[in-house]
């Protein structure tokens, strides 16, 4: 593999900097209904990540000891997947299920010791660049096919990227689009449906695709591992309808999808494991059921009866009520997973509506971190966040300008003084929240503090399945709302740029707080050009501090996870890339 010196240094620096947890699915699904109590935290087994070779990119995937093929795996979860069209996938649980039927140019291979390598998925390796990352070349493997047996070609890769420009595609990543066509990429190109293509993506032959960016992006091969750039079949593209039933390039294909009720998968006979270094496909079928709340799923996993013995859950964690009992039960330990997720929880302040910095500072000061954390599981739910970046990110520095660690319960008196000085007492705060039992209690804790600080509080419940769709609207009518975020790979760039770059504000975008600060934008532009990864990390840490100083939003906790699965399954592992249970090695015993 040809690799620029900057990419080599970055990969090396990631390894040297320590054990870093990474994520490829930026938005978290807020499974707080099933969060944890104040039990002590288990040691975190962190991972390192490196860039693999062409040899590493060959299939089959690393076998799971003792695994066998056959049977049906059940999955029980609170919500249906909000998106299955790769171009619109940015949620962690959407990305996790997509591993079963969507492939990308690159992906992550996990070794037995938990270390991870970026490898070629559809591609023979992780790509090559001879100009520092401005132009990337990928070669497709022999034998990669769609579910109907037709070959996956370079034209499919080109088309899949082009359709991310389409107006109906909302909520997915925008890195590649903006790198090719600029921040206003949809004004530059409307997608492939009028027969026009992107000149920046060329296909010299059926196996070769070349992508040219406006500037150097030495991490583009990491970007292309995101589900958002998964391959889509032009011949079977149903536009908006594709989101319900994508055409498979992976080991399984969708046989039936009943919205909000169930999703059924069976083997894709044209997937060849010899081409795939990432996915083991042990079960014959997957049956996924939705509408199961975390308390129900916890009770069912603990009882371990019938079909539930062969069940797991992407999203549902152990319900608060049962955390201590689960942790104390020796019989459950063998099928309990706990780990640090890569997400930072925030309470985003809508800066379109709350323009006065003093009002935002009052919100930060008054926020009841201690109370809301306890309702969602105490210390096992997460550690208080003192940065907009996770501790797993290169360049992370703890910073606490509003003394959250000194008064995690909130300082309502200081907040009220800020409002009084700003002549802003009785400012109305419309708070949008996931309408689940735990979040209803969290909302009341927030109400108590904000009203004590002098705010007028108006709660606004939202459906959990479409929660992100609602808060991602630029003209939403909310002032404060929760959101989780994790880096797409462990640098400050993917931690901060997608969320805080003011030039990326759009419906379906990731700048939930609608921050458009020219100083921050310029600092981001400068930081991304710094070649040395350690120096670049310091630049992102400085940006993080500026964001906190201006009280643009409220960092809350660094998330943790605790989950159960049935005794009839083997190979169930915690995916540190997404902070969820992984399907890749699961088998029926």
From TrEMBL:
Keyword terms of this UniProt record: Signal
UniProt xrefs under InterPro entries: Peptide/Ni-bd, SBP_5, SBP_5_dom
Point out the signal peptide segment: 1-25
* GO molecular function terms attached to this record: peptide transmembrane transporter activity
Its GO biological process terms?
peptide transport
Check the record and name the CDD domains matching this protein: PBP2_clavulanate_OppA2 (cd08506)
Gene3D superfamilies, alphabetized: Dipeptide-binding Protein, Domain 3, Periplasmic binding protein-like II
Record-annotated Solute-binding protein family domain positions: 117-503
Which Pfam families does the entry mention? SBP_bac_5
Q: List cellular component terms (GO).
A: ATP-binding cassette (ABC) transporter complex; periplasmic space
Protein name (Swiss-Prot/TrEMBL)? Putative peptide ABC transporter substrate-binding protein
Annotated source species:
Kitasatospora cheerisanensis KCTC 2395
């Amino acid at each position: 593999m040809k690799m620029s010196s900057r990419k080599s240094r970055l990969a090396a620096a990631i390894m040297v900097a320590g054990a870093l947890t990474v994520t490829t699915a930026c938005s978290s699904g807020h499974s707080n209904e099933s969060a944890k109590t104040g039990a002590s935290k288990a040691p975190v087994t962190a991972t390192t990540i490196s860039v693999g070779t062409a040899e590493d990119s060959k299939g089959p995937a690393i076998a799971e000891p003792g695994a066998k093929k056959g049977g049906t795996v059940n999955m029980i979860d609170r919500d249906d997947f909000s998106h299955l069209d790769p171009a619109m996938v940015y949620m962690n649980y959407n990305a996790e299920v997509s591993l079963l039927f969507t492939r990308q140019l690159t992906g992550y291979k996990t070794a037995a010791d938990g270390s991870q390598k970026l490898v070629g998925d559809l591609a023979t390796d992780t790509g090559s660049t001879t100009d520092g990352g401005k132009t990337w070349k990928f070669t497709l493997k022999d034998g990669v096919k769609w579910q109907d047996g037709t070959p996956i070609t370079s034209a499919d890769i080109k088309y899949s990227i082009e359709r991310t420009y389409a107006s109906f595609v909302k909520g997915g990543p925008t890195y590649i689009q903006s790198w090719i066509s600029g921040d206003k990429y949809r004004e530059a190109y409307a997608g492939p449906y009028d027969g026009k293509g992107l000149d920046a993506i060329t296909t010299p032959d059926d196996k070769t695709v070349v992508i040219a960016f406006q500037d150097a992006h030495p991490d583009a091969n990491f970007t292309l591992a995101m589900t958002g750039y998964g391959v889509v079949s032009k011949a079977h593209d149903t536009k908006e309808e594709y989101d319900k039933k994508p055409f498979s390039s992976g080991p399984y294909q969708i046989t039936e999808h009943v919205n909000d009720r169930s999703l059924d998968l069976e083997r894709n006979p044209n997937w060849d494991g010899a081409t795939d270094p990432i996915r083991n496909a042990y079960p014959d079928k997957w049956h996924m059921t939705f509408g199961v709340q975390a308390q129900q799923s916890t009770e069912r996993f603990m009882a371990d009866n019938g079909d539930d013995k062969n069940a797991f859950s992407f999203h549902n964690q152990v319900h608060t009520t049962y955390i201590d009992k689960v942790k104390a039960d020796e019989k459950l330990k063998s099928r309990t997973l706990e780990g640090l997720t890569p997400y930072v929880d925030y309470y985003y302040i809508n800066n379109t509506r709350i323009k006065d910095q003093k009002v935002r500072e009052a919100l930060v000061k008054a926020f009841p971190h201690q109370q809301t954390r306890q309702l969602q599981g105490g210390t096992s739910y997460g550690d208080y966040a003192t940065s907009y970046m996770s501790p797993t990110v290169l360049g992370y520095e703890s910073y606490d300008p509003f003394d959250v660690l000194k008064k995690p319960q909130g300082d309502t008196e200081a907040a009220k003084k800020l409002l009084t000085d700003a002549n802003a007492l009785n400012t109305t705060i419309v708070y949008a929240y996931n309408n689940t039992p735990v979040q209803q209690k969290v909302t009341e804790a927030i109400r108590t503090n904000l009203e004590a600080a002098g705010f007028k509080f108006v709660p606004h419940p939202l459906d959990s399945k479409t929660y992100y769709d609602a808060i991602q609207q630029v003209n939403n009518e909310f002032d404060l709302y929760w959101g989780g975020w994790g880096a797409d790979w462990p640098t400050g760039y993917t931690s901060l740029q997608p969320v805080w770059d003011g030039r990326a504000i759009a419906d379906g975008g990731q700048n939930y707080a609608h921050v458009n600060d020219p100083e921050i934008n310029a600092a981001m532009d400068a930081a991304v050009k710094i070649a040395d990864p350690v120096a670049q990390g310091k630049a992102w840490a400085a940006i993080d501090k500026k964001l906190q100083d201006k009280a643009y939003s409220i960092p809350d906790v660094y998330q943790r996870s605790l989950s159960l699965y049935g005794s009839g399954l083997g190979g169930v592992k915690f995916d540190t890339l997404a902070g969820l249970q992984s399907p890749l090695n699961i088998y029926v015993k």
